[in-house]
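Recap slide: Cation transporter, sequence and predicted structure.
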Amino acid sequence: MQPKKKAILISLCVSIILMLAKFVAYFLTNSNAVLTDAAESIVNVIASAFAFYSIYLTTLPKDENHPYGHGKVEFFSAFVEGILIGVAGIVIVFKSSYDLFYPSAIKQLYDGAIIIGSTGLVNLIIGFYLINTGKRNNSITLEADGKHLLTDSISSAGLVVGIVLIQLTGIYWLDGVISIALGLYIIFNGYKLTRRSVGGLMDESNIGLVKDIVSILQANRQESWIDVHNLRAQQYGADLHIDCHVTLPYYFDLNAVHQEISNIDKLINVSSSHQTELFIHADPCLPACCNYCKMSNCGVRQEEFKGEIGWNMENVTKNQKHFSQ
């Protein structure tokens, strides 16, 4: 089984078990704070199920209807998970606010704290496992699910502390206050996850990825690569698609141009952490390029070499050659 499928299947099975355990804790204690944690576990199960389906889709090969593959479904999966988290948080806040004014009796808090604490520890372990697996396989879905479980474990830790305080102080309205605080925390994390997924769906530029590519090209640039410009990157799940323009000597024949482009392709795929598909447009050099062109045996040079222009985010992403001032 593929690592991504294995990881999300483990998450789904564990989420179901922990959800049942948290509802047992709620029926033991009748605590709204515990119910808050149990309700969020329903979201965990739904999110993990949807994440499993989305990861299945990403493993499908490219086809006529999806020439770039199915990777973008991971952003949609993260979006759905963020929405579910936010809705759960809103419901929790409203219910807890109501129960502040119309409280119900709570009991067996220590038993509930033990169960909730145990589920939080399990979520912490599974959360780190999913995040690490997601980073190794460039899966936003696994990272999102892992961060969701880490959020849940933090909520559980705060809940255990709150339950102990209620038991020690006898101030039972703290139950509602703790629930509201946890609900707001859940809403905030849902917003962050949704914001990131929307950026991916809208092809928002991933500045970190582009910087990595620019650094790789700058560190390994060849004298025939006169400049690189109009560089853009789009991420589709674990795959990265890059298009750019590369200025090459105008007298290169088609075989030479093909070889230079192939060298850039191999360089990016060996050095980058992402599987990358490149679309490179070759531009011929102009006389104005001579003063920063390092070609040592150029028989058509019209100006002396004055100095190399370093590649950075400012000049590589612009749609123009790097004419020196």
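The first helix runs from residue 3 to 29.
The first strand starts at residue 227 and ends at 236.
(End of recap.)
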